């Protein structure tokens, strides 16, 4: 388990530090660590200042007062600058690393249509959006926080440990007639105090990790429940499903609150402990050093310096308790990101056995074509077809026989297939699904999608009139969620407008007219035939009226066999 944690951590970590930006990144990290070391050095200087200052006070050296205050101000000023820039530059490193890693993940997600494969082919991948936007950010910020924090605390521990050791001198303990001398006893004592404190915090606080984890889970469940209602608002409204939905909300929210109460109670106990421990840490070194002070072997300055150094050592050791929770968070993030990375790599590695070649003449030729499901089930076997320029083919068959999957394989997005497709060079292909995709933004952008540039205005208006969307001409530049505003039939007509604008060489239509009435459907097909006589059309549909719009029919049986015949209406 631990080995896996480190392996996964290393896998996620190493990319950026070995990338083309590695020298800048390593340099910046070294500088940030250097700033942290310098701030520890300043703390040590401030700590010895205590010694000198209190000794001067004890000896009523008025002439030393202002120079010492001046020295403190100078050191404190430097410390402030270092502390601010140590954080600022760490954040700079964080944002650079995040930019690099996010771009990598976005590229990987888009490459080989992984975004599609993850959703269609692997049902066990959850929210890529959250992985890319939140988890990467958390991974980086927690890693830097831990890496720099741990190094700083180790340095603090070393530096102040030495200070304490030097200050405490030897302590003689008489046991049974013998005298034992303990060197650096304050150091050992602070170590013991911190170790006991750490064990105590672990004991009191460990339940918080589980409770925090549960809290996040319950909050996510509650949020997810509301999101489902937002996404399915229309269906729920038709069903009048408010009552069961409200019960669902109440149940999930009750869990959030119940767990939060437990969290509050545990935190209260922990806060008693942490505050008590902190306050005790002020008194304990004074009590421990008092015998030496009253014996005259330690000055007031020494006493104050000891007390401050004890606090630093104790803080540094206790840091490892406070990072307990951070490490648990990091472990969870690493688990999620590694799972996502593995799924992305897996999806990208599935290689299609379909060979795509440039056709000698203007026809789309399919040879020895097989279409399968991920479990190996054959939907279509050994299919051979030739669709000439401007020809129209209708794919028919019972529901679930594999019509859409065949279209996906021909379009090159379904990888479980084999065979050969010859397609004329530079052919433009457009795919019209049942529910067309409308990107966020203006209607104009939606119409030209996936092209980024728009064409002549008059042509656009003319096309909109032809597909019966003239009413939307004044709203072409309105920015809105058009998939919510337009009815499904209007969206399907918009997709036909897109065909007329993009002028593809081949169009694949997957029940692209299902929401249109039959006369409108005929109109759309005739429009395509008139405007784009050289465009090959391959449709999937159940309506009998579609036959008159196609010359050939490819009938699938679902067990692999098929039949291609001319349409006779
Ligand atoms: N991602 C997937 N993983 C596993 N099986 C799938 C996947 N997608 C589709 N299938 C299965 O493949 C078969 C063919 O599906 P397809 O959508 O191609 O059928 P269809 O003929 O277009 O159906 P319909 O006419 O109902 O739209 C179905 O049995 C379906 O359950």
From TrEMBL:
Query: Where is the protein situated, by its record's location annotation?
Result: Cell membrane
* Primary localisation category: membrane
A GO CC term attached to the entry: plasma membrane
Write the record's keywords in alphabetical order, separated by commas: ATP-binding, Membrane, Nucleotide-binding, Transmembrane, Transmembrane helix, Transport
In terms of domain of life, where is this protein from? Answer: Bacteria
Cell cycle among keywords: no
A single MF term (Gene Ontology): ATP binding
Which SUPFAM superfamilies does this one have? ABC transporter transmembrane region (SSF90123), P-loop containing nucleoside triphosphate hydrolases (SSF52540)
Indicate the segments forming the ABC transporter domain, all copies.
Answer: 364-569
Q: In what way does this protein cross or attach to the membrane?
A: Multi-pass membrane protein
Q: Which residues form the ABC transmembrane type-1 domain?
A: 30-329
Q: Which Pfam families match?
A: ABC_membrane_2 (PF06472), ABC_tran (PF00005)
Please list every transmembrane segment annotated in the UniProt record, as residue ranges: 27-44, 64-88, 139-165, 185-205, 272-296
Annotated protein name in UniProt: ABC transporter, ATP-binding protein
Q: Whose protein is this, by species?
A: Mitsuokella multacida DSM 20544
């Amino acid at each position: 388990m631990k080995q896996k944690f480190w392996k996964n951590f290393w896998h996620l970590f190493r990319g950026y530090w070995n990338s083309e930006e590695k020298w800048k990144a390593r340099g910046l990290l070294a500088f940030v660590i250097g700033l942290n070391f310098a701030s520890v050095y300043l703390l040590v200087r401030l700590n010895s200042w205590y010694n000198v200052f209190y000794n001067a006070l004890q000896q009523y050296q008025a002439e030393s007062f202002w120079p010492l205050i001046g020295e403190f101000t100078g050191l404190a000023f430097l410390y402030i600058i270092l502390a601010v820039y140590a954080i600022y530059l760490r954040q700079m490193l964080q944002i650079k690393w995040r930019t690099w890693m996010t771009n990598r993940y976005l590229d990987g997600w888009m490459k080989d249509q992984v975004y599609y494969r993850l959703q269609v082919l692997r049902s066990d991948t959850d929210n890529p959006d959250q992985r890319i936007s939140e988890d990467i950010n958390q991974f980086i910020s927690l890693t830097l926080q831990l890496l720099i924090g741990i190094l700083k605390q180790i340095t603090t521990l070393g530096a102040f440990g030495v200070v304490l050791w030097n200050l405490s001198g030897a302590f003689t303990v008489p046991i049974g007639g013998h005298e034992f001398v303990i060197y650096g006893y304050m150091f050992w004592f602070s170590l013991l105090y911190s170790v006991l404190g750490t064990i105590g915090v672990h004991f009191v606080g460990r339940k918080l990790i589980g409770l925090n984890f549960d809290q996040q889970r319950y909050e996510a469940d509650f949020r997810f429940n509301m999101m489902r209602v937002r996404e399915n608002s229309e269906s729920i409204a038709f069903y009048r499903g408010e009552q069961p939905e409200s019960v669902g909300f109440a149940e999930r929210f009750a869990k959030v609150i119940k767990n939060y109460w437990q969290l509050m109670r545990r935190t209260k106990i922990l806060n008693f402990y942490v505050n008590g421990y902190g306050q005790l840490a002020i008194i304990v070194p004074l009590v421990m050093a008092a015998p030496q002070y009253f014996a005259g072997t330690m000055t007031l300055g020494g006493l104050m310096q000891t007390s401050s150094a004890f606090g630093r050592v104790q803080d540094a050791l206790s840091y490892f308790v406070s990072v307990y929770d951070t490490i648990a968070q990091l472990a969870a993030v690493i688990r999620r990101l590694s799972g996502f990375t593995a799924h992305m790599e897996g999806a990208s590695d599935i290689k299609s056995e379909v060979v795509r070649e440039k056709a000698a003449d203007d026809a789309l030729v399919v040879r020895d074509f097989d279409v399968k499901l991920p479990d190996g089930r054959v939907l279509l076997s050994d299919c051979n077809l030739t669709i000439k320029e401007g020809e129209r083919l209708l794919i028919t068959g019972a529901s679930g026989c594999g019509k859409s999957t065949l279209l996906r394989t021909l379009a090159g997005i379904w990888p479980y297939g084999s065979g050969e497709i010859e397609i004329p060079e530079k052919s433009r292909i457009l795919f019209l699904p049942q529910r067309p995709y409308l990107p966020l933004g203006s209607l104009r952008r939606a119409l030209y999608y996936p092209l980024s540039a728009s064409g002549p205005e008059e042509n656009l208006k003319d096309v909109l009139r032809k597909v019966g969307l003239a009413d939307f001409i004044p709203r072409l530049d309105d920015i809105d969620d058009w998939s919510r505003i337009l009815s499904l039939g209007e969206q399907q007509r918009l997709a036909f407008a897109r065909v007329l604008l993009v002028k593809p060489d081949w169009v694949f239509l997957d029940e692209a007219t299902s929401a249109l009435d039959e006369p409108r459907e005929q109109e759309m097909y005739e429009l395509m035939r008139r405007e784009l006589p050289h465009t090959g059309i391959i449709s999937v549909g159940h309506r009998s009226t579609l036959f008159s719009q196609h010359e050939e029919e490819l009938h699938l049986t679902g067990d692999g066999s098929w039949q291609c015949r001319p349409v006779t209406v």
